[in-house]
Amino acid sequence: MKYLVIVGDGMADYPMEQLEGKTALQYARTPHFDLLAGEGELGLVQTIPPELPPGSDTANLSVIGYNPLEYYTGRSPFEAISLGIDLGPEDVSFRCNLVTLSGDEPYADKKMVDYCAGEISDQEAAGLIDAVRKELGGSCIDFYTGFRYRHLMVWHGASDVCELTPPHDISGQKISGHLPSGQNNARIRQMMERSYELLADHPVNIKRIEEGLNPANSIWIWGAGRKPLIPSFSEKYGLEGIVVSAVDLVKGIGLFAGLKPVKVEGVTGYIDTNYRGKVNAALEAFTKGSDFVYLHVEAPDECSHRFEIKNKISAIELIDQKVLKAARAGLEQSGFDYSILLVTDHATPLSLGTHTREPVPYAIFRSTARKKNTGLTYDEISAAGTGLFFKEGHLLMDHFLGQAK
């Protein structure tokens, strides 16, 4: 049996007037999502425990089969391992976004204009992080270049993890109520403020402004955590597999679980990503002997954070057409027995622009247990109507792999 998990990040949503009172999943044209739900099992899953923040970190950890209450120590350690950074027991890692803050006000009075600095390119970002590293790095602080707006900072010997706000949670808001608080806050806030002085007039940003693009004029530090201890996926489930994602967070969760991240050219984490390349990587892995593939698509979540209604609908439809349809056709042609889990890790409502913790729809199809199409559709309302519900998200993977206790 080959097991394929397709995660559409942030697909779940609230009904919207602009979408005729429907959610994005209800409004989008998704015949292949609906066929999977109609021929298989449809229900809801609570991916995020009430005690933890509703993030892609806690949610994907849950979906991949690990209880976040046991294994979650913070977001950035997953990104650190994906970048090849080996954290020591005394290290605290932090996510370091390049963001766009508003203009001439004092730092605390600025607004979060763009949490991803206009999807800045890797080359531009590398120059800015290099400038930050030279100015703000030192004996106990290291900065590491990631991809686009996503980068990393490691504080060696930090005494505690601070309370920090994700920048995508405060789009369009004044940052004064969301600046670092808790132990070590003064040092982190100082670095953020100094970064604005350093980056606002950097040649990269001067050029971006001239081109009508948002400047990456500040770093934003968040997502603190220490290195977690996670049992391997093969130890837990007896399966070897891969992770296909553009996002270091998801690749890092896979690495901690002993799943191999596979590089796919042209993946971006946005709506222009290489959907077909991801599917090809999954099918190739199955052919070469892998039993499990975790295929993650970030695009719907990014569209929600940016309040892009049309793009979110398009992203969902692209996953339906270019991922699920293509993957199922490839698996049918291969002759393998297979199971597919279609799920969204969490809701990212377009009306809010940030993550929420409601239960989300899942669908499971098994080629060895095909059902006559029930006509159920893959969306929040239809899934709620089935009465199937996993209160603890990590138990869904046990169920999917046939190892429920």
Would you write up a description of this structure?
It is a single chain. The protein has 405 residues and is an alpha/beta fold. The model has no long low-confidence stretch (mean pLDDT 94). The strands form two sheets. Strands 9-8-10-1-11-12-2-13 form an eight-stranded mixed beta sheet, sandwiched between helices. Strands 3, 4, 5, 6 and 7 form a five-stranded antiparallel beta sheet that branches. It folds into two domains: 243 residues, Alkaline Phosphatase, subunit A, CATH 3.40.720.10; 144 residues, no CATH class. Helix 5 crosses helix 10 and helix 6 crosses helix 7. The longest helix has 26 residues. The protein is 35% helix and 19% strand. The chain is built from 15 helices and 13 strands. It starts with a strand and ends in a 5-residue tail after the last helix.
Number of helices: 15
Along the chain, the helix and strand elements come as EHHEHHHEEHEEHHEHEHEHEHHEEHEH
Uncertain residue ranges: none
- CATH-level-4 superfamily name of the largest domain: Alkaline Phosphatase, subunit A
Q: How much strand?
A: 15-25%
How many E strands?
13
Overall form: globular
Mean pLDDT: 94
Question: Looking at CATH, which topology of the largest domain would you report?
Answer: Alkaline Phosphatase, subunit A
DSSP helix fraction: 25-40%
End-to-end separation:
20 Å
Class by helix and strand content?
A: alpha/beta
Number of domains: 2
Largest sheet: 8 strands, mixed
Radius of gyration equals 21 Å
User: What's the architecture of the largest domain in CATH terms?
Assistant: 3-Layer(aba) Sandwich
The top level CATH class name of the largest domain? Alpha Beta
Instruction: Give, in spatial order, the strands making up the sheet with the most strands.
Output: 9-8-10-1-11-12-2-13
